[in-house]
Amino acid sequence: MRKRMVLAISLAGMAVMGAGKPDDPLTRPIAPDYAKRWLEPQPPARLYGTTYLVGFGGLNVALIRTSAGLIMIDGAVPQAVPDIEAKIRQLGFSIKQVKLILSTEPHFDHAGGLAALARDSGATVIASAPAAAVLRQGGGDPDDPQAAWLERFPGVTKLRAVRDGAVIRLGDVAVTAHATPGHTLGSMSWSWKSCEGKACKTIVFASSLNPIAVDGWRFADPAHRRFVDAFRTSFARVKAMRCDMLIASHPLDGDADRLAKLARARTPHPFADPAACRRYAARAEAALEKKLME
């Protein structure tokens, strides 16, 4: 019995050594089989000016270079953190240069990696007040229409809550917060200007506007009216935004092709599309109306 116990302990130790490094509770995989659909490999890319993409085929993570450090938007799932940090290095930066991390929504696919990224960088995470409350506890919002589907994630401790319309400044860059609730009541989109020479574009990193809920949760239920009203307000807000380029929290159909074109030639810019935000909101609006009719 003693020999078997010693053998078991030895094998466990070998497994840890074989993994290359000790277990990190902030980067333990969440729903790894399900999350694979989001983590399709994608090389880092300079989108426009001082704006970069360091995410994946199914999850966008953005980076903005400022005169005082880097701003990151979203953090993907915990197991994606090493890849995100590697992509930052490939671009010639360091995770330690990230000073602020902006959050679009408190779901594990976008917020699961925030705690690890904030720890490794020392950055402050910024979110709406409703989202900040959920981020602190690592998910678990019982009012979320997707609550029964959602995985818990590492809680975020270094947080700052901002209101709709707040302007977050770091060095020479100003990012505006746009409350876009519906998908979650704390969802926030972000916009900023990025320039190449004298040519400046307003870039929008939009939260998900997808009206999705677990089976049996009905948007037409009068008890859920606040979600419908929130969606409709957000649709109107996104349609009205100045939006020369759109980064959606989950990449849009055709984004992979646009990135491939961008790698070959930057003119005409494949992401330049002043109507992108209007179309993005209109598609989500049509999806909501269909659900209400059903």
Compute the separation of the termini in Å. 62 Å
Q: What is the H/E order?
A: HHEEEEHEHHEHEEEEEHEHH
What oligomerization state is this entry in? single chain
Strand content: 15-25%
Largest sheet, spatial ordering of strands: 1-2-3-4-5-6-7
Assign the CATH superfamily: Ribonuclease Z/Hydroxyacylglutathione hydrolase-like
Range of helix content: 25-40%
CATH architecture title: 4-Layer Sandwich
- Return the CATH topology: Metallo-beta-lactamase, Chain A
Helical segment count: 9
What would the principal axes of the Cα set say about the shape? globular
- What ranges have pLDDT less than 50 throughout 5 or more consecutive residues? 1-19
Biggest sheet record: 7 strands, mixed
Structural class assignment: alpha/beta
Rg, Cα atoms, Å: 20 Å
Number of strands: 12
Classified by CATH, the class is: Alpha Beta
Mean pLDDT: 93
Indicate how many domains the architecture comprises.
Answer: 1
Describe what you observe in this structure.
The chain is of the alpha/beta class and 294 residues long. It has a single domain, classed as Ribonuclease Z/Hydroxyacylglutathione hydrolase-like (Metallo-beta-lactamase, Chain A, 4-Layer Sandwich). Helices cover 33% and strands 21% of the residues. The protein is built from nine helices and twelve strands. It has helices spanning 2-19, 32-35, 81-90, 108-111, 114-121, 129-137, 225-240, 255-264, 276-293, and strands spanning 45-48, 51-53, 62-66, 69-73, 98-102, 124-128, 159-162, 167-170, 173-179, 188-196, 199-206, 245-248. It is globular, with a radius of gyration of 20 Å.
